[in-house]
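Handover notes (outgoing to incoming on-call)

Open items:
1. Kinase-like domain-containing protein: sequence verified, structure written out, both below. Nothing else pending on this one.
2. Nothing else urgent.
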Amino acid sequence: MPPEIGSRPPRSAVGEVTGGELFWTNHREWLQGLGYLLRPRYQEGWTPPWTRVFDAIDQETYQTYGHSGIMDATVIADGSFVTMKRIQSPSQELDIAVWFSNEPQRSDPANYCVPILQVLTDPKEEGWAIIVMPLLRAYDKPRFDTIGEAVAFFKQIFEGVQFMHRNNVAHRDCTSTNIMMDGASLYRVPFHPISQDRKRDFSGSVRPYRTRTEHPVKYYLIDFGLSRRYKPEERPPLEPTIRGGDRSAPEIDACEACDPFPTDVYYLGNLIRRDFIEGWDITSQKFGFEFMQPLVTDMVQTDPSQRPDMDEVVRRFNEIVRGLSSWKLRTRVVKRADIPMLGFYYSIPHWLRRIKLIIRRVPPIPVPSR
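Kinase-like domain-containing protein C-alpha cells:
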C-alpha cells in the first residue's frame, strides 16, 4: 500500500531498492557498457517518487520481481526488450539452456525452449552468469479468442516437451508459470515487463489490437533450474521427487524416487485440465474442450507407468485435431463467467472477425513463423 497522504516513508519503506535488487544496481554500468539499459528504478540516484497525493504512475515504484535473480532491460542498439536471469555457472541449468539454443537444436521446428540470446560472465562474482532472453508474456494473456488458438497452444507445448524428451531432457517443472508467449506483436505499444496489462511507462492500460489467429504467436518453455539431461543409456532414470509449481502429481508423495519423464506428461495434462476443461473455479471453467478429455485423462493417471509418453501424446493429439471441423476451431472460447450477461456482447466482435478471417482464408489453427 502507498504511504499515508502527507507523510514521507522512511528509507527502508516499500518502494526502495533493497535486497536482491541491489545486485542489479551494482551491475548497471557494466550492463550498460554491454548494451543493456535497466529501468529508471535501477539507475543511480533514483528514489521513490512519493508525492502528497499518490499518483497511479508511481505504481512503477512497486514493480519488482518476486525472484531477485530476474530482471528486464532495453537493448540500447534497437530499443527491443529482454529478460535477464542470474544463474550459477557452471550449472546444469546453464548447460541445458545453452545447448537448446545452439545449432542444430536451435533451428529444429519442434524446439520451443526459450532462446538464449547471450550469456554474460559476471565480472564481480565468480561462479555466476547472466543469461539474456526475449521478454515474454504469460501464455494465456490476452485470453484465447478461438478453440483453434488453444489447439495451436496445445500443439506447441506438446511438441516442445516431446523435443526435450527425445533429447533425453526432463523439464521437471513444465507448469503454467514456466510456459510463456512471445506476444509483443499483439500490442501497438510496449507492455510493462511485470504488470503486463499496463503500458511500460505506467501511463495507462494496454489492449491487444489483434488476435492470435490474425498474428500467430510462439510459446516457449522456460526455467530449466530443475531440469535434468541424461545419457540415452541412463533412461529410464530414477530421481528424487521434487516440488515445483504443480505439486499434485501422485508420485510426489508416493515414492522417494521416480522417472521424471512421465511426471512431465502429468504436468501438461493437468495444465489443460485445470486451465481449459475444469477451470480453477466454477467461473473460470471453459466450454468446448471436451475433445481433449480422453487424452488428458490418460495423461494424469495415478500410475505413471500407465501414462502415454510424449510421442504417443503427440500422435493421439494429431488424430484428435484431424477430427475437428473448421467451424469448431473458429468457435469462440467461452468461460462460465461470460454467461449470460456478457455472452452476446462478446459474440458480436467475434462473429465479425470470424467472417473476415474466413473470407481472407486465414487458417483456423494459427501457425507461427520460425
